[in-house]
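Let us practice reading a record.
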Amino acid sequence: MNTHTRTRGVALIEVLVAFAVFSVGILGTFSMQIAAKRINSDAAQQSIATALARDILARMRANSGALEAYSVDDIGVEEPEAVGDCDSDICSSVEMAARDIYQWSESLSGQHERVVIDGHDIATAGLVDARACIGNDAGLVSVSISWKSLSGGVGASTAPCGERIIVEDSSGETFKALTMSSYMVQP
């Protein structure tokens, strides 16, 4: 009987060890899932930022006579004024630039795609806590965009808009940045 009791105790220990190993494996799988979701979110934000930068550069190329009118700072902090409808009205190139900046700033924050959840109107596209600047130095146009990052780590080392100079701001949030430059011939 003594041998049988000892065998039962060893079997119970084996089951507990197997359960512990299984639990560690499951926890590892969950942490990998969370990390993958964060990285996927950051990759999606990077893709959106790239598309937005290309969009405004294409708008500027189409309206190259008003390149100076596209130079703006702190989009996302200071929203540009809404201007008339240049789709149906005749607009000057400067008015068209103002309209392009307004539409682009709405795309930056995701204002075109909204959903109502529990009575709250939420933007579902765009970048998280986005900020952008557009500069023009004698035809060398730079579009800089920064946004809040979920994964942290490598981030914005320069500030597109003057204040986000380091990867982490004072609240401990991390930001990523994208800058695209293109040379445009002014007519």
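A brief commentary: DSSP finds two helices and six strands in the chain.
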